[in-house]
Amino acid sequence: MSKEKDIIVSFIIPHRGREELLRETLRGISLQLFDLEKIEVIIITQNKRLDLDLTRYPFFIRILFESEDKTISSLRNRGAEFARGTFFAFIDADVFLSGNWLNVMLEEIKRKDVKMVCAPQTISKNPTNIEKIRVFLTSTKSDKFIDFTGGWNLFIKKQDFFKSSGFPEDIITCEDYYFCDRVNNLGKIYCTSKANFIHLGEDKNWKELFKKEIWRAKGNIRSIKGRRITLKEIPSIIVPIWIILSAILAVIGLILGNPLLFLNCIFLFFLPIIVYSIRLYRISVNFNFFRILKFYLIYFLARSIGTLIGMSLKYRK
């Protein structure tokens, strides 16, 4: 086992489900252009068992087992308690980091007032249309200071992580909004295109997109309580509610036999979807408009359903 004073970076990986993706994530870490003996990996898994050959990896791995009722924030915070590194690298268990990721993170976090760094998603060898759209949307946020980023790859100093009080353990989804807000209170978050990652668990079809966005949106309303809301976030909060209300009023108009109410509400239902689609089509290259429209239709419909479900759920206290 590496001595504590030798550990520079602690990779903290919450895990549940497919082990093959976790193995690819670990392979990506093993290909980092860095002294691997100065890395440790902490896996916090909700699987009952984990079949990993630890001897094949050139760094120390610690495996912690947690119950299925714990939130992803709880898993990350638990991993941080055991981490020995000066820097924490929080990554998901289904990402493959570029070989220069760690070196770039260590360099970029030296920027003035920067407290956390991340990199954008890049496409895999055989990307689906969904993946291409996702990657393009994240690439527009590169090489600039940002208010928010997802939890798939985050790099932060140990001392700043604990100053931020860590991830909020009482919410199921949208925990990264809270965490980023806490970090922004300490300093800045920077996204750099000098490194990247592949999302191995990206939605492969429209059905997967629909199901996952329902789950992700369950914390949509809960996530706005007790934190600063940026102007860029407001549409993502309002649009699902807008769509829910438009759909309900359209059904009422249909039941009452009021065609004017029905048609107006159908127009309002599709309006934000069309606006988002036109915006992306205008700034993108080689994207078919109707595929973009299909993406946003499924995306916002799922987000609306998830938001509605989340409003009726009793979250952990």
Give the uncertain stretches in residue-range form: none
Average pLDDT number: 91
Main sheet: strands, sense, barrel = 8 strands, mixed
Tally of contiguous helical segments: 10
Please write the CATH class name of the largest domain.
Alpha Beta
The CATH architecture of the largest domain can be given as: Alpha-Beta Complex
Q: Rough shape?
A: elongated
Distance between the termini: 38 Å
Helical fraction: 40-55%
Per CATH, what is the topology of the largest domain? Spore Coat Polysaccharide Biosynthesis Protein SpsA, Chain A
Strands, count: 11
| CA-based gyration radius | 21 Å
Task: Explain the overall architecture.
This protein is of the alpha/beta class. It has two domains: 7-202, Spore Coat Polysaccharide Biosynthesis Protein SpsA, Chain A (Alpha-Beta Complex); 203-317, no CATH class. It is 44% helix and 16% strand. It has helices spanning 19-30, 72-82, 101-108, 129-139, 158-163, 175-184, 206-216, 234-255, 259-283, 289-312; strands at residues 9-15, 39-45, 60-65, 87-91, 95-97, 114-118, 121-122, 144-146, 153-157, 188-191, 197-199. The strands form two sheets. Strands 3-2-1-4-9-6-10-8 form an eight-stranded mixed beta sheet, sandwiched between helices. A three-stranded mixed beta sheet has the order 5-11-7. Strand 1, helix 1 (19-30) and strand 2 form a beta-alpha-beta unit. Helix 7 packs parallel to helix 10, helix 8 crosses helix 10 (289-312) and helix 9 packs across helix 10. The chain is elongated and about 75 Å long. The two termini are 38 Å apart. The mean pLDDT is 91.
